[in-house]
Amino acid sequence: MQLWKGRFKKELDEKTNDFNSSVSFDSRMYKQDIDGSLAHAAMLSAQGIISCEDLSQIVKGLNEIKADIQSGRLLIDPNAEDIHTFIEGELTARIGAAGKRLHTARSRNDQVAVDIRLYLRDECGEVYALLTELINVITAKAEKYASAVMPGYTHMQRAQPITFGHHLLAYAEMLLRDKDRLSDARNRMNYSPLGSCALAGTTYNIDREMTAKELGFDGVMQNSLDGVSDRDFCIELASALSVIMMHLSRFSEEIILWCSWEFKFVELDDAFSTGSSIMPQKKNPDITELVRGKTGRVYGDLITLLTMMKGLPLAYNKDMQEDKEAIFDAFDTVKICLKTFIPMLDTMTALPDNMRKAAAGGFINATDCADYLVGKGVPFRDAYKATGELVALCIDKGTTLEELPLDEYKKICAEFDEGVYEKINLDNCVNGRTSLGGPAPQNVLRQAARVKELNK
Fold first, then answer.
1. Distance between CA 79 and CA 84 in Å, rounded?
2. Tell me, what's the pLDDT at 274?
3. Which helix (H) or strand (E) holds 12?
4. Residue 422: CB partners within 8 Å, gap ≥ 6?
């Protein structure tokens, strides 16, 4: 059934119908479509536009349809033009003329705009909950490894000593911002377009505030053209989801490195790894590799939405049917990535001894050596130069700053004494970094407590 057939004398070409149909992907919004129709019908009755008897039949019919779809007793017709047409057709078949009155003072343009906002609002809640769960896993591990010394990196070169807990909490901070971004986008989306109709509102005395309140919106969209043609919220949500995937991808890349024999900082549980069909020794971090790969997919969804909207005149255009597949895919992808990433990280075993061994090499305590001289009154730039010469000397001799004899230190700068060895001890290097946000273990525990408080 096509709701618009009255104007046309010929049947729609079968291939055109298939091309035009959206039921294969918008059918997932059946609950939101029914909820929107229930609110609309209640408003029509309250305004005296339809009778109380019609309302009673519509409510009963829609609730029965929802229950039948949920139970599997009613299958959505794949040949239907869209979910809105299918539900209205099914309602009319069940209750007769009252079902034909439901669409009074409404267009599919504002109907679909309501449905997708309601659906994405629910999706935001699911992703928000998953991010909360992931942050909880991260903070638990950060507390456990608050004192586990590891090398911090810049340019993928060992740079300065930090702790594993401190490193993990950097991702917790990113994910907290992701939650804020998602929440902000959801709040901007949470305004009702219902009552905008096709593009110019209606001559019926409708109450848009009533339907907005009934559906849990914060208010109504103030311009009917904007109400049916706005998809900013899809783009903004896809952008927020892309940032989430970027953070997961960065985290995945590090886990992939940490799993390698070259690092061996962590070990993934067997349940979250795969093997090779030819190399029996292999244990591959496939989940993290897939997360890294699927990031590009979500980026693609964002570009699809931006490109779709960039040249559209007001108001509704059929191009906008493409919004749903892209934004649905973005949410589906983020959810499946989070649902697998969370237990993978939770069961991941850290190997602090290997982290400590890596931290012992690479002269990552060189800055502390320079700071020692600064504490003796040596200007930082002079201290920096002296320490650089010491590192070069150690490389030539195949030794480390900790093992270099004091007389070698004194040859380069007379201000050195036995205290330098305490200063460049890795534990002392980390413990001394007590500045706000630094990796000292007590800082890490405070940071973790703060994150847990914010993550409630």
1. 13
2. 77
3. none
4. 428
d(CA 158, CA 333): 34
Query: Which helix H or strand E contains 315, and what residues bound it?
Result: none
CA distance 197 to 105: 7
DSSP for 229-243? Answer: H--HHHHHHHHHHHH
Helices (H), 267-365: 286-309, 322-347, 352-360
Question: From CA 98, how far away is CA 57, in angstroms rounded?
Answer: 7
Computed from CA positions of residues 254, 260, 265, 266, in that sequence, does the dihedral angle turn out positive or negative?
positive
DSSP string, 72-136: TSSPPPTTSS-HHHHHHHHHHHHHTHHHHTTTTT--HHHHHHHHHHHHHHHHHHHHHHHHHHHHH
Model-level pTM greater than 0.85? yes
Pair 392, 386: CB distance under 8 Å = no
**What local confidence, expressed as pLDDT, does residue 142 receive?**
98
Catalytic center residues: 155, 276
**Tens digit of each residue's pLDDT (9 = 90 or more) over 259-270:** 999 999 999 999
402 closest CA partner among 436, 382, 426, 378 = 426
DSSP structure string for 336-359: HHHHHHHHHHHHPEE-HHHHHHHH
pLDDT at 283: 85
Q: How far is CA 267 from the centre of its chain?
A: 25
Is the Cα dihedral 108, 114, 118, 121 positive or negative? positive
Share of the chain above pLDDT 70, in %: 94
Over residues 58-64, the mean pLDDT reads 98
Has residue 6 got a pLDDT over 90? no
Whether residue 18 has pLDDT greater than 60? no
